[in-house]
């Protein structure tokens, strides 16, 4: 989603669309997995959080209250969630990839950033950004300066090397999935985000599938496990335009 970032549809418009969609799935959803970068930037001070997102937090909170579990994997744009969402919404926050089992299918879920070999520059930056001493120092900056600074940092880290070919865009994450699959052939699905390029792609063994969820900036896609099949679906963009008016 990268909420806080205005694309063709503004952040507010996309948030409204997300809230409407969440309400529409609430009657049948059993569990919701958010694979990171829900926010374009976020920094949680001990006593302060970024303004906004009330409607979204309300509906997520309703999910949890009605018994729908929510799992939130931090993305590279929202590394700085420190417990507000767990405490006030009751969702489960995860620092990194998780492996889950649903209906006897093993699924590996990750945001997708910095996985596998290479990308050393990014890995160094990430180790600084997740370092507790560095975070302590950052938390001394007043939010009126700290949060705009976060926004600038987030703009600088925007991934520009999205290819028109979704396989190319996903290649490093596909390679990583392939190598993990060699170690654990029980995994049926590798599901990630980060690349903003939706795709369902069979790995070398056709019992195993790599899926990229796409995004809600240009694709408005989401993934549904219905008990027997994995379906990559798209929200009705016309509805987005209605909201746009
Ligand atoms: Mn990302």
Mean pLDDT: 92
The rounded Rg comes to 18 Å
User: What is the global morphology?
Assistant: globular
Low-confidence stretches at least 5 residues in length (pLDDT < 50)? none
Order of helices and strands: HEHEHEEEHHHHEEEEEH
Distinct small-molecule ligands in the complex: manganese (II) ion
SS element count, helices: 8
Q: Output the CATH homologous superfamily.
A: Metallo-dependent phosphatases
CATH class: Alpha Beta
Q: Please indicate the percent range of residues in DSSP E strands (runs of 2 or more).
A: 15-25%
Number of strands: 10
CATH fold label:
Purple Acid Phosphatase, chain A, domain 2
Quickly give the CATH architecture.
4-Layer Sandwich
Span of the ends, CA to CA = 20 Å
Helical proportion, percent range: 25-40%
The largest sheet, given as strand count, sense and whether it forms a barrel, is: 5 strands, mixed
How many domains is the backbone divided into?
1
Backbone structural class: alpha/beta
Q: For the largest beta sheet, what order do the strands appear in spatially?
A: 4-5-6-8-7
